[in-house]
Amino acid sequence: MIRHFLRLADLTATEHQTLRTRAKLLKKERAAGLRHATLAGKTIALVFEKSSTRTRASFEAGIKQLGGDVLVLDAQGSQLGRGEPIEDTARVLSSYVDAIMLRTFGDERLEAFAKFSRVPVINGLSDGAHPVQLLADLQTVDENFGTIDVPMAFVGDGSSNMARSFVEAARLFGFLLTIACPEGYEPPADEIAAAGGRVRVVRDPREAVKGVSVVNTDVWTSMGQEAESKKRLAAFAGFTVDGAMMALAAPDAIVLHCLPAHRGEEISAEVLEGAQSRVWQQAENRMHAQKALLEILLPT
Ligand code: CP
Ligand code: NVA
What we know:
Elements: H1 13-31, E1 43-48, H2 54-65, E2 69-74, H3 86-93, E3 99-103, H4 107-116, E4 121-123, H5 131-145, E5 152-155, H6 161-173, E6 177-180, H7 189-194, E7 199-202, H8 205-209, E8 214-217, H9 229-235, H10 243-246, E9 254-257, H11 269-272, H12 279-297
Parallel strand pairs: 1-2, 1-3, 3-4, 5-6, 5-8, 6-7, 8-9
Helix pairs in contact: 1-12, 2-12, 3-4, 5-12
């Protein structure tokens, strides 16, 4: 059985616990200058059909730190950009490497790629999910509160990959999540229902953040939705996470944003740069969490 990581549920609860513990250790050991060779002799391909800074750099640096090799393919510079079927790319690429991270558009593209791959496939962001980001986000929550079982809010586009992965996390790990989004921007109803009462959708962002420990947000216009950006800017008016909104959260609340951020849109510059922001810690944790993930998917 090939181990893919297309969504959070592709790891067991125990593996998630192991991953978080290992990621924290890898972080400490890197700070102490310790070297690892757990990916020695392995090559991992990173395939991008959408832009990336963090995902590309954190995977590439992390793989090298574990003694592995990496190759990067962009849609533009490969036959993917000229319409070669994703299934063909998966078959060929997976005969060269030991694992493949794919950042793509529709989830059906990701599923098709995984179906035809002979090696583990990692979802590096699709239209419907961003599970590797959640690994880092949960590690950050854990580092700040000593647990991930704290009330969280997501303010903004509830239909985005980030919001949907938070819904999946609430379902799997049991924390309470309140999503504030305008009408028409909710997570899919079946995903909310599957979370069995752990996820609540409200219209007023102030209601959502009231007393929570973690306030999350993400861009209003995700990659691939650029044509809708004007409409979205209008729809999300009043959803900016700013100082007034943060004053309603718990006094020790933290703010997360997967980045890139648009200051003055989904988050104010003051909050992004402020004392409650953990976005840089969160971005750093991408690398540590993904190293731990690769060790699970590619055991020595
Ligand atoms: N958060 C995140 O995935 O960033 P990139 O788009 O830069 O990879
Ligand atoms: N929702 C955003 C996340 C970027 C990391 C997007 O898909 O563009």
